[in-house]
């Protein structure tokens, strides 16, 4: 349990931000210590240079330096100064002899030395034969800096103790969308409600984008599952009749074929016809079930060649006169098989439901920043109340006439699925004096 808790987003964020906060405080304290040390050094150096400068300004041989040296020092009793004249005579301020004697035995750290638990700053200078040495006690500066540093450390500890619950609270707030998303996913899986989608948070942006991506994936999976279920349902429903008929004729041949040979030929013709219908049905069901909703990385292709090939194919099978008004070239980003499904099903559908001596017009062009593919026939037409139903699977408006037309009833369903895949639109209008006009609009 502890291991799982340590790996939660909130705990990881808390650990990360506390570590960053502590690291920043350490850097700030080190910077403060470095700046403070520099301040002590240059302040002590400035004071010692002022003392030496004051002595150098008043170097006169007649002065009794034994009484004057103490006057150049600060009020701290531990400060010391030594003056050596060109004649080799040395003068000491009060206690300077003992101070320098002890200092000279100690290890120096550049200009600093520790003697009798005191810190001294040493400097010396030669001027016109005089040699001046100064030792200034900088304990007060070090004490001040130490006190400030300890105060900062105390404040740092308090800040860290206060920041931990605050950071934890914000970490839980930031990770709440992830927890919500996980809970909703588990609920969807437990209750088996794939149609439901998880809540999209407004921020952070990464979680929002992740939620959108997951919902898109969920929709894709749901659509794939629905297509699979629909395929199984449609296939089982539509294949029952021809399979039953085929099995009936097979059993008829088995029972009466020997005694009545004339029924064999009739039954075989019926079996051949029904099996051909089954083959067509299965192929179109597979086409409908394989329509993928992914349109990423689709390269532009020339649609004119596809339409020309489709028109030529339909002309070889159906007697109608088909005229195509096409540009020299029209490029559009779509998969060749997808547009071929649209063009072939619409043109062939127009030929199936039109008189043999009628005309069929095919149009392809760009119109109002959209691609327009249009097929107009002079067939039996479609009533207004049924224009939405014709795109349903296996729907046929005129049952008496449709029964004479070869087909599975899936052509327009395939067209509608392909158009929806590319976020397009398909419309159905009356043609003059009779017939139907199918218009497919695909966005540029």
UniProtKB/TrEMBL annotation:
Entry keyword Membrane: yes
Localisation: Membrane
Catalyses which reaction(s): ATP + protein L-histidine = ADP + protein N-phospho-L-histidine
InterPro entries: HATPase_C_sf, HATPase_dom, His_kinase_dom, HisK_dim/P_dom, HisK_dim/P_sf, Sig_transdc_His_kin-like_C, TCS_sensor_his_kinase
A GO molecular-function descriptor: kinase activity
Top-level EC class as recorded in UniProt: transferase
Protein's recorded name: histidine kinase
Organism from which the protein derives: Lactobacillus kitasatonis
